[in-house]
Amino acid sequence: MAPPLRLTVDETGPGTVRELTADQVAGLLSAPGAVRLTPAAGGRWRVTGKQKVGLVRLRTPAGEAIELLLRPKLPVRDLLFLLSHSPTDPWHAEPEQVTAATADELLPALADLLARVARRTLRSGVLHGYRTVEEDLPLIRGRVRTADQLRRVGLPLPVAVRYDDHTPDIAENRVLLAALRLAARLPGVPARTRFALRHLTDHLRGVRLLHPGAPLPGWTPTRLNARYAPALRLAELLLTHRSVQPEGGTPLPTDGFLLDMPAVFERFLTVTLTAALARHGVRCAAQETHHRLDEAARVPFRPDLVLYRGGRPVSVADAKYAYVTPSAPPTSHLYQLLAYCTALGLPHGHLIYAAATPAAGADPTPHVVRRSGITVTAHTLDLAVPPAALLADVTTLADRIATGRSTTGSPPD
Predict the structure, then answer these.
(1) Are 365 and 328 spatial neighbours (Cβ–Cβ below 8 Å)?
(2) 18: closest CA among 71, 68, 56?
(3) Burial class, 312, CB count within 10 angstroms (exposed 0-12 / middle 13-18 / buried 19+)
(4) CB count, 10 Å around CB of 1?
(5) Nearest to 107 by CA among 82, 67, 80
(6) What pTM, to 2 d.p., does this model score?
(7) What is the average pLDDT across 30-38?
(8) Is the CB of residue 107 less than 8 Å from the CB of residue 76?
(9) How much is the mean pLDDT over the chain?
């Protein structure tokens, strides 16, 4: 069997130019959400990233394997912080959190992080809960299912009963078990980490495996399962990003993992800004679907964040993962925020850009739209700074938004 075609592509940038067969091109096109293909000189193809990171394993129509590694522009440590941060359970960049052997690769680092978090979670024991069971037994346990029992003819045994069983086979453990098994199969994971993951699955005896393709069981955060929350967030992250979603098609299963970085940034910004703005009495609502642009209410729009104080919208913000200079944002971005502000009756909106390196001219820049009185302020967050510094920058951003100041000490026009 021919060795797989291995391609390494940065999530953004000029990409890589390779000679590809027609069959290999067809295989890459089967996952349009992962990369972009454009013809290059000499009959070759340019493969560029589409702000996705992870690993995708595909097969061409002829059965040839393709391994596509999509590298993040952020260091893996910083990306793990974005993925796992929660104000109620802050992630600490412990020195041993990601081993030196996995620090430069996303999938091994995620598997290592899951093993460490799951070990701490299960150290206090496996969570149990009550599950309603209906079965036929040679004795009475719990309550008799009278209707089912009366329909039977002949011997009165077995008895149709219903009872509550105190069991580890609950949603939290089923999600965690599925993620541990998946992480142990990810490519590039060191043998030591695989052993740790498989050892942790032994703690979850009596927990049923999820059927392939079945939706994840739902769980509700409570005081009882609070210690499971960090592990479950990572588990759901792994389980829900294991496929590629073609446009207008069904997901393509892969052996790897694919993250949409704009969605990662948007979620991180929503979580951190919501916590920071709460100190000012401001409530954040993300991706609301009830807003309408026109008087006839036929044209919907969905801002990333609408800020409310006392039930009334006071500002609107949109997260933009593609970094641009705040002093010259794309016209389309300004149009977008102008429409949001106009429809919501707001004088001020915010564009929040992500940067992976310290950027010149990163101070907030207000743009006053002529004849409207509406100000759109462009902000930048440097995602490559240490976690504590990034959270401090988000707090500063929240203070500026809440107080209506577009730059430090200067109110917007």
Answers:
(1) no
(2) 68
(3) exposed
(4) 6
(5) 80
(6) 0.79
(7) 84
(8) no
(9) 83
